[in-house]
Here is the input.
Amino acid sequence: MNKAIYPGSFDPITFGHLDIIERCSKIYDQLIVGVIKDNNNKNFLFDEFQRKNMIENLVTKFSNVEVRVFDSLLVDFAVKEKSKIIIRGLRALSDFEYEFQMALMNRKLNDNISTLFMMPHEKFTHISSSLLKEVIALGGDVSEYAPEFIIKKVKNKL
Ligand code: COA
Here is the structure.
């Protein structure tokens, strides 16, 4: 089975992430969306179960997509899921250096697993979860970038 994992923070998921999920669901037999539990560099607005639930609500239409929380090295999560493919989205050149470092470190940690990059639709290349939260906090319209129920959840949290 051709199985890939798509890991991330998803705090919260946006249409940009969903765009990648949809593209992958058409290419792979199975896609596991991996929600990282903690990240020392980030203070999450939503806990891992809230982030997972939000994604699950949005991927019900894709029968080959599942969502799991993980709390380990990414390559170990891939091994656990029996996947040799990590998908990362590349939005702009600015993503490249960070993604390049991660991909090579992950390859060093486990050379059986490859990172593949995918570009989301260009209308989502300038957004991030942080930017979304910032604009919502200041009362801006982000309806083009995330589903209404996600925007409401962010508003409630803030
Ligand atoms: N649309 C919109 N935004 C996108 C996007 C897309 N298609 N792709 C990425 N982004 C944004 C995210 O919203 C996020 O924004 P934020 O920083 O404002 O929250 C940002 O790009 C990057 O986040 P993400 O893709 O979630 O990655 P991350 O940097 O938070 O890392 C893991 C997440 C899970 C990949 C990483 O923490 C990890 O591998 N952890 C496991 C531990 C490990 O193995 N470490 C060693 C790695 S070498």
The mean pLDDT is 97. Residues 7-9, 11, 14, 16-17, 20, 36, 39, 73-74, 89, 91, 102, 105-106, 120, 124, 127-130 surround coenzyme A (CB under 6 Å). Residues 24 and 58 are 15 Å apart (CA to CA).
